[in-house]
């Protein structure tokens, strides 16, 4: 990276630079100090220190005094002292030792520095490790008084406090916003009145955004306005307000619901200190995990059906003791099938599981949350079963996870499949265009069956990282059907709640924004204005091309979101959460209980439940920084691959310009690494574009190196101990998460460089024949790719009274048609009979789901008519794993004579259920 580029990125409004970039800046400072200490140019050190000083104002450590000591050493020309102090600070930041050791706060390393005054009462004297956080203090007092103010806050520390925090002081709204965005260690914010609007530092992009938000005059810098802004970007932070005015009136203002507590003046500073600690403790408490730890330490006699409980059958055995030694005693001490003695029932939680779920709802912005211990496959099936009845129609992404399709089978609901845009070159699909969804709703309305359309069921983000504009999708659909239920499968996207950039693209994030919009009187005006513009009977063409505004008075906001907590947070495998924000939940609550009883185990794993509880705690207290780091890791990987001359010859990570067609990128956004891209124009893309990419999900094209996705995945796993996610014909999916480090990045890049070098050597040493063979292989992988098959239609036997425009079908009947062995047949894929029937009939009707991996979604569902394009695709597939298909037997089909009997009531049988109204 050039110096000019690095300098541009150090402005305080460049928020793509996360914890790793800060660490790099400190290491750069140390290197510059070493050069100066060896007699080299001092200017580089001065420049680095000046640049670093700006953003370090927003962090508790190294703090005002240590930064002042650095500047003093530089101004006195003491290169040795500058190098020594910069090195110690950098090491303390890297190891995070400053959180526990008072010596790291000394300006000198002789133990006789100013630490007692700086942090008194000291960190020391409290033997137990205390979690550390920082508290943002927004004040209007002069910056010359900030050291004294910080000292006053430090005097409040007590040895009995469960946590320790360091104050971070700013004097303007813009600086408070920057600190909130740049400092992942913040746990609380204290807002005094009387601060200014503008930052003291250069922030041109920030200025344009504050202008867009109407923050143009100093009078706009109100404490309440700042509290609302901070709550919007960091909803997990506790906010406290200190007012010199009528606090009673302020406390009664509904707009202050973003504030945890309001204080009058500074009359109770100790009370404020205790409130801050209490707020952190509230997020730190894990009701189930805390009780499970207590349960494990009690002497309990177990006379229930769980022999492994307490571990005696393990540790007394000569044959399986190694499992106990591997896992340790606590795992078995905490095992129980009991729901008493401090534990709780997953089926009917009334105690600590209930409390843990309530905390999870707060953390995720939901009304309620269900813990699920069978994975998000079960969460999806629970939601579908609880919300849909036989005959109900659900608009479903055909490429969604198989659990949704099976959920429709269980519920007896009729899926109306809609297609995502294809990415044929990479053998994958994107997401479903909004126009396609609206057309399905309008078709249902035209045929008088809109009342039967109960749900829109979509995957967000997709396996490959496509993110919907969730707010726009919901608003435009609600404009057509105000009571439509939305189920957002966000199995891979649970972490997005803790990113201010990505949160707006989640189902719950958008639902909360829509809810706030509905309360705004301007929402009715916006609806009435559009209603007048469209006229009484606008055509479907007009409705499809218009950004529809729903009637806020008619909306019944019903949003469900499933998250694989184990896929993006620190939960054990199969840990999932089902979040609810539904004004009509009381009407389906009993159905949800029945769905829980149907799918949840009566013997859930205690450690799994505890990990769900713990993962919520972690994300509320440090999720913001962890997600920022995951995004930073992903951007580092993208840059290292695409900008490296060797790697980019054979590998490429696809940007938005390759993954999202231009018509769905209305902002013109192309890639995170494009010149001139910063957080402001990325935010514009997140707000305006129909589809965006999750930056943490990276499609790494390996076909240019002559490897198909499955082959390359195997090489990485077997030869280099690198695990990646899904594959396509010519790519693998690389995903960064909250667990990744810069060392992981270095390992991946080194491995890719080694493989690229091997390809290079092979082409050089192999001669012309090797080059031709390689080019043919690349052409086969990158050019000769099969067309992706769309869903065709359900056979008329499974369509009942379906209309001509809509394409829903009775998938349940299709599924159980396969149970009639005599009514099914098998034909091998390459049998000429397949081709004959495709041309002359009778139609080929699938008897089951056929799911190749990749791409990992059903290319056939029960009752679907099989077309030529599907057969062509299957014949070109070179994957080994195809669920629902046995190559020896061939395709399983419903016989023509069996199709004729389907739907006819058998003698004495009950007639089919009518469609639910």
TrEMBL record:
Transmembrane segments: none
A Gene Ontology molecular function term of the record: transaminase activity
Location of the Orn/Lys/Arg decarboxylases family 1 pyridoxal-P attachment site domain: 286-515, 558-735
Domain of life: Bacteria
Record-linked InterPro entries: LL-DAP_aminotransferase, Orn/Lys/Arg_deCO2ase_major_dom, PyrdxlP-dep_Trfase, PyrdxlP-dep_Trfase_major
Cofactor(s) named in the record: pyridoxal 5'-phosphate
One Pfam family linked to the record: OKR_DC_1
Keywords: Aminotransferase, Transferase
Listed name of the protein: Decarboxylase
Organism: Bradyrhizobium manausense
């Amino acid at each position: 990276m050039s110096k000019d580029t690095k300098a541009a990125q150090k402005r305080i409004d460049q928020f793509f630079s996360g914890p790793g970039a800060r660490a790099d800046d400190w290491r750069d400072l140390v290197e510059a100090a070493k050069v100066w200490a060896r007699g080299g140019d001092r200017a580089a050190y001065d420049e680095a220190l000046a640049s670093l000083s700006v953003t370090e104002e927003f962090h508790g450590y190294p703090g005002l005094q240590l930064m002042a000591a650095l500047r003093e050493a530089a101004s006195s020309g003491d290169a040795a002292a500058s190098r020594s102090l910069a090195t110690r600070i950098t090491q303390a930041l890297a190891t995070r030792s400053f959180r526990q050791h008072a010596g790291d706060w000394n300006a000198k390393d002789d133990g006789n520095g100013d630490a007692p005054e700086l942090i008194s009462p000291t960190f020391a004297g409290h033997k137990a490790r205390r979690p550390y956080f920082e508290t943002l203090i927004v004040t209007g007092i002069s910056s010359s008084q900030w050291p004294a103010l910080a000292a006053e806050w430090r005097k409040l520390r007590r040895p009995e406090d469960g946590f320790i925090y360091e104050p971070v002081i700013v004097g303007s709204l813009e600086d408070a916003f920057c600190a909130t965005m740049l400092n992942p260690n913040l746990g609380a914010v204290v807002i005094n009145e009387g601060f200014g609007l503008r930052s003291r530092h250069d922030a041109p992009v920030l200025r344009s955004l504050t202008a867009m938000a109407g923050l143009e005059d100093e009078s706009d810098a109100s404490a309440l306005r700042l509290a609302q802004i901070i709550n919007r970007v960091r909803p997990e932070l506790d906010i406290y307000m200190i007012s010199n005015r009528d606090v009673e009136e302020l406390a009664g203002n509904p707009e202050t619901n973003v504030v945890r507590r309001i204080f009058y003046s500074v009359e109770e500073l100790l009370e404020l200190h205790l409130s801050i600690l209490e707020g952190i403790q509230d997020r730190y408490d894990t009701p189930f995990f805390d009780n499970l730890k207590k349960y494990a330490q009690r002497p309990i006699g177990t006379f229930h059906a769980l022999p492994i409980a307490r571990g005696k059958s393990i540790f007394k055995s000569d044959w399986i003791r190694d499992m106990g030694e591997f896992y340790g005693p606590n795992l078995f001490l905490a095992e129980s099938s009991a729901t008493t003695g401090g534990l709780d029932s997953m089926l009917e939680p009334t105690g600590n599981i209930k409390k843990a779920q309530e905390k999870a709802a707060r953390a995720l912005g939901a009304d309620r949350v269900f813990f699920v211990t069978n994975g998000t496959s079960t969460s999806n099936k629970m939601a579908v079963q609880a919300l849909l009845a036989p005959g109900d129609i659900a608009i479903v992404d055909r490429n969604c996870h198989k659990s949704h399709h099976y959920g429709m089978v269980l519920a007896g609901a009729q899926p109306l499949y809609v297609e995502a845009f294809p990415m044929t070159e990479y053998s994958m699909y994107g997401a479903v265009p909004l126009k396609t969804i609206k057309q399905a709703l309008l078709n249902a309305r035209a045929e008088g069956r809109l009342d039967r359309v109960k749900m829109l069921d979509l995957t967000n983000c997709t396996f490959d990282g496509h993110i919907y504009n969730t707010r726009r999708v919901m608003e435009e659909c609600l404009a057509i059907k105000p009571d439509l239920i939305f189920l957002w499968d966000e199995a891979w996207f649970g972490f997005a709640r803790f990113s201010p950039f990505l949160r707006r693209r989640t189902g719950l994030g958008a639902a909360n924004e829509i809810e706030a919009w509905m309360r705004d009187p301007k929402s009715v005006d916006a609806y009435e204005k559009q209603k007048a513009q469209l006229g009484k009977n606008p055509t479907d063409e007009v409705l499809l091309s218009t950004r529809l505004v729903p009637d806020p008075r008619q909306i019944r906001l019903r949003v469900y979101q499933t998250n694989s907590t184990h896929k993006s947070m620190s939960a054990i495998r199969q840990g999932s959460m089902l979040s609810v924000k539904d004004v009509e939940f009381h009407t389906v609550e009993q159905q949800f209980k029945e769905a829980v009883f149907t799918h949840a185990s009566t013997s859930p794993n205690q450690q799994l439940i505890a990990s769900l509880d713990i993962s919520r705690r972690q994300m509320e207290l440090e999720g913001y920084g962890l997600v920022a780091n995951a995004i930073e890791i992903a951007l580092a990987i993208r840059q290292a691959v695409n900008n490296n001359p060797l790697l980019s010859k054979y590998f490429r990570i696809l940007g938005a310009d390759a993954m999202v067609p231009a018509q769905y990128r209305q902002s013109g956004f192309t890639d995170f690494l494009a010149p001139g891209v910063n957080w402001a124009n990325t935010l514009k893309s997140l707000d305006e574009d129909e589809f965006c990419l999750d930056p943490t999900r990276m499609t790494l094209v390996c076909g240019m190196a002559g490897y198909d996705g499955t082959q390359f995945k195997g090489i990485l796993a077997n030869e280099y101990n690198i695990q990646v996610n899904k594959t396509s014909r010519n790519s693998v999916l690389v995903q960064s998460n909250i667990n990744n480090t810069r060392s992981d990045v270095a390992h991946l890049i080194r491995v890719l460089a080694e493989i690229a070098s091997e390809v290079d050597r092979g082409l050089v040493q192999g001669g012309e024949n090797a080059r031709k063979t390689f080019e043919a292989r690349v052409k086969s992988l990158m050019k000769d790719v099969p067309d992706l098959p769309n869903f065709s239609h359900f056979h008329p036997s499974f369509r009942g009274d379906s209309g001509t425009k809509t394409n829903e079908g009775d998938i349940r009947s299709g599924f159980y048609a396969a149970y009639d062995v005599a009514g099914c047949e098998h034909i091998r894929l390459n049998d000429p009979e397949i081709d004959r029937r495709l041309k002359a009939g009778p139609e080929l009707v699938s008897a089951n789901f056929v799911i190749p991996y990749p791409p990992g979604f059903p290319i056939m569902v029960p009752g679907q008519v099989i077309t030529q394009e599907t057969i062509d695709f299957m014949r070109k597939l070179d994957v080994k794993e195809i669920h629902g298909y046995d190559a020896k037997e061939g395709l399983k089909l419903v016989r023509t004579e069996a199709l004729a009997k389907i739907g006819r009531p058998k003698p004495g049988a009950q007639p089919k259920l009518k469609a639910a109204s």
